[in-house]
Amino acid sequence: MKNSICVKRKRVSDYVMYGLIYTCAASSVLLLVGIILYVLAKGAGQIHFGFLTNVTSVLRGTVGIAGNIVNTLYIIVITMLIATPIGIGAAVYLNEYTKPGRLVSLIEFATETLAGIPSIIFGLFGMMFFAQTLGLGYSLLTGSFTLTLMVLPLITRNTQEALKTVPDSYRTGAIGLGAGKWYTIRTILLPSAMPGMITGVILAIGKIVGESAALLFTAGSAYTLPKGISDILTKTLSSGGTLTIQLYLSAQKGEFEVAFGIAVVLLVIVLLINGATKLLTKKFDVNREKK
After folding, report:
1. Angle between helices 119-126 and 140-164 (to 10 degrees)
2. For site-directed labelling of 186, which of 85, 88, 115, 231 has its Cα 20 to 30 A away?
3. Which residue in 245, 188, 239, 237 sits closest to 212, CA to CA?
């Protein structure tokens, strides 16, 4: 029985590989914890109510990032309002309406290539096309249009992969019951693929929050707050720096306390986004299992 295949043999190489795997996993966790603790230690003291609700003003002697938070929200809302329907629509078309062939392969190749282009190239294109050719100038709208091009591949590919995981029996069953194509997509396929779609959308939001290179060329760096209802509507056509832009500018000026304070805010936002992703995905998975 010593050499039987039913007896579990313990090899030295197995222990070595287990050790390497656990070491790699522990290193990843420790690296993340180390970065979070370091940023918190450097920037937590800068976080207070005034820092989050005021704007930086030399005359009033205040330091704050309220304007940058508002600008970040503007960028997120405008970008996602444009990118989400286009990305989901493109994924539905590619996965449900077209047949596999050269056209689909070309579109998928273009989407993957678009996802791999450095963000600073998007910024250069946005500055030349949206800002100068279309005359939008340095504005939140220019930055949003540029970021739309950046996050479209992410939303499209995630939605497409989510639709591919839906069993074909759902489609054939719906057709057998007399349901039309669009009705099947709207009532069966999209709800079933919702966890993957939500993941793509929230990851896109995370990418928008953390982007800086493209926005340096397109959105500008102003940090003023809207002064009235009319200003809220017209602010999209004015310059606006996000949290990442302000972090970069603060570090460049040597204001490292402010920079680390902004870094803490960004870390909290990223953690909230990741937590929301997991909660929403889990919720939709549970609802789907109940059905």
Report:
1. 130
2. 115
3. 245
Beta strands in 66-207 (DSSP E): none
Cβ proximity of 147 and 211 under 8 Å: yes
Q: Measured in whole angstroms, how far is the alpha carbon of residue 172 from the centre of its chain?
A: 34
Q: CA 151, 226, 137 angle in degrees (round to 5)?
A: 50
| pLDDT per residue as tens digits for the range 9-27 | 667 778 888 889 999 999 9
At 17, the amino acid letter reads M
Residue of 259, 251, 249, 245 lying closest to 210 (CA atoms): 245
SS3 227: coil
- Tell me the per-residue pLDDT of 71-118, one tens digit each, with 9 for 90 and over: 999 999 999 999 999 999 999 988 888 877 787 788 888 888 888 888
With CA atoms as reference, report the closest residue to 262 among 78, 34, 42. 42
Which residue type does 89 have?
G
Would strands 62-65 and 55-57 be described as parallel, antiparallel, or unpaired?
antiparallel
Looking at the DSSP bridge assignments, the partners of residue 55 are 65
Cα-Cα-Cα-Cα dihedral of 93, 96, 99, 103, to 10°? Answer: 20
Please give the sequence-ordered ranges of beta strands (E in DSSP) within 21-142, or none if there are none. Answer: 55-57, 62-65
Instruction: Give the global pTM.
Output: 0.85
∠ CA 221-224-225, rounded to 5°: 135
- CA angle (208 as vertex; 203, 213 as ends), nearest 5: 130
Which amino acid appears at position 151 of this protein?
A: V
Cα–Cα dist 86/223, whole Å? 30
